[in-house]
Amino acid sequence: MLNYIIIILYCFSLLLIFFFSMGQLNLAWNYIKSKRKPKEGDKLLPESLPVVTVQLPIYNEKYVVERLIDAVCTFDYPDTLLEIQVLDDSTDETVQIIQRKVAEWQARGVDVKHIQRTDREGFKAGALQYGLEASRGEFIAIFDSDFLPEKDFLKKTLPHFDESVGLVQTRWGHLNKDYSLLTQLQAFGLDAHFSVEQGGRSYAGSFINFNGTGGIWRKSTIVDAGGWSADTLTEDLDLSYRAQLKGWKFQYLEDCVAPAELPIIMPAIKSQQYRWNKGAAETARKNLSKVLLSDIKLSGKIHAVFHLFNSSVFICLLIASILSIPMLFIKDANPRLEILFDLGSVFLVGFFSIAFFYWVASKSLHPLKTGKYYFRLFPSFLVVSMGLSLHNGLAVLEGLFGFKSPFVRTPKFNILKKGDSWKGNTYVKPTFNWLTLFEGVFSLYFIMGIASGIYLHDWGLIIFHFMLALGFGSVFYHSVKPIVNG
Fold first, then answer.
1. Is 236 exposed, middle or buried (0-12, 13-18, 19+ CB in 10 A)?
2. Which of 40, 224, 308, 432 has the fewest C-beta atoms lying within 10 Å of its C-beta?
């Protein structure tokens, strides 16, 4: 009986991974088609410029907050039409840094306000809603503390608002992409999201999402959708779905880039991944029924399901990985089940779909060095993603089953050059926990899987188990390294 449960779970997990890969292939195809469309000419700003409010949600960001305020205060936009809100929930010396910087720009005639609340209720979502209610802008631009928007951001985005557009989202750039292999791998993955995923969904007319920063909203869209809500960890995705279900259209601008700093150590990457993956699952739990019961076309609903449950692939990968070793012994003891493993080769199509997805992104954003860039980073990206499946899979399960947790910020460093040290950052306190321990144990487990395959003379999963052992080992190493070196 146990063997049959293992077989069913293993095959079902592989089937869901296959469906996920087909969804990625569809996005890649839509993105390719979008590139064949003739480019529109440059859109012009309206003759009567609107008032814009720029919101900067801040919580204990002493290393990066000054450069952010400097960047938005020098926007190429009339001072009389620009309002800047520094939404400061800080509890450390960041408060004094902001006070000095705001006073400096106020003396130069810039309308920049230092806004503080009596508590952090609702975390980032609460701060954004608090500022929204006091804002005077017709449009609301939002930037997290690690961003450095360019001077012409508003002039590039505002022309894309017609009466039906509620949000314009731009592509993230990477200030410290070449700091280390970890930052290069993050950039590799994010570039695919901000090209193929956002571009493919936009072309197909499907739901796309505000990415929490680097975008500009029509204020009435936020109000119409019910405002910011803190009942998920991804308030940006949640509001995106509520707004689009109200009929608002979103515009994605791939050619407009908002540069940001990437996390440089594994604990910081994990905190960010945890929030994104758990929050996406919470948003799926909250909004799936609304999407399915809406009057949008069937293809849009299918795309939305894949979008909302995108992070659930980590659960499927984790289950398939763990069960793959028992499956070796089940197969050896039951030769008649060989057909299941033969059929499993069909899922190679899924792997090639994922590989193609990232190839398309690399070719689009790095046309002059596609091959070298892709083949250097894609294998490592895949391996580390597999190693994060335990961490991310548990985050998704927490979101799907409704386990609540506080908003955990990702520490910022203001470290952009290779070789610079993060030591001394008071926000980084890496600790060894049971999850990190299990990542090390899983690495050993999949080494055992390699040995089992050799022992049974079954070579079908050797490469898979090697990648898993290397992935979990790498994540374990990079999680422990800051503790040892710190």
1. buried
2. 40
Task: Return phi, psi of residue 112, to 5°.
Answer: -120, 130
Instruction: Provide the β-strand partners of residue 86.
Output: 56, 114
Q: pLDDT averaged over the chain? A: 93
User: Which candidate in 88, 111, 191, 236 is catalytic?
Assistant: 236
Residue intervals of the chain classified under CATH 3.90.550.10 are 48-310
Q: Provide CB contacts within 8 A for 4, sequence distance 6+.
A: none
Q: Helix or strand or coil: residue 375?
A: helix
- Report how far residue 187's alpha carbon sits from residue 174's, in angstroms, rounded to the nearest whole number: 7
- Taken as a whole, the chain contains a residue count of 486
Mean pLDDT of the region 197-219: 96
Using DSSP's 3-state secondary structure scheme, residue 446 falls into helix
Query: What b-and-e string marks burial along 248-269, b requiring 16 or more CB atoms within 10 Å of the CB?
Result: bbbbbbbebbbbbbbbbbbbbb
**What is the spatial distance between Cα 150 and Cα 143, in angstroms, rounded to a whole number?**
12
- Has 458 been annotated as catalytic? no
Q: At a CB cut-off of 8 Å and minimum separation 6, what does 94 contact?
A: 58, 59, 60, 61, 62, 65, 88
SS3 169: strand
Contact assessment for residue 129 and residue 227, using Cβ atoms and an 8 Å cutoff: yes
CB neighbours (10 Å) of residue 403?
12
Does residue 216 sit in helix, strand or coil?
strand
The CA–CA distances, whole Å, from 169 to 243, 262, 320, 345 equal 14, 19, 35, 39
- For 273-326, the pLDDT digits (tens) are 999 999 999 999 999 999 999 999 999 999 999 999 999 999 999 999 999 999
The H or E element containing residue 195 is: none
Q: Which two tokens stand for residue 255?
A: 């050619």
Q: Tokens for 348?
A: 């190679």
Q: Identify whether 420 is a catalytic site residue.
A: no
> What is the chain's alpha carbon radius of gyration, rounded to the nearest angstrom?
23
The C-alpha atoms of residue 138 and residue 320 are separated, in whole angstroms, by 49
Phi/psi of residue 408, nearest 5 degrees: -105, 115
Question: What's the whole-model pTM score?
Answer: 0.94
For the domain made up of 48-310, the CATH class stated in words is alpha beta
Highest mean predicted confidence (pLDDT) among 225-234, 360-369, 401-410, 425-434: 225-234
The band of 344, judged by pLDDT with boundaries at 50, 70 and 90, is low
What's the rounded Cα separation, in Å, for the pair 14 and 412? 37
Q: Which of 89, 144, 191, 238 is the catalytic position?
A: 89
Q: Select, from the ranges 73-87, 335-349, 358-372, the one with the highest average predicted confidence (pLDDT).
A: 73-87
Cα–Cα dist 380/60, whole Å: 33
Q: Angle CA(68)–CA(69)–CA(70) in degrees, nearest 5?
A: 90
Q: 3-class SS at 173? A: strand
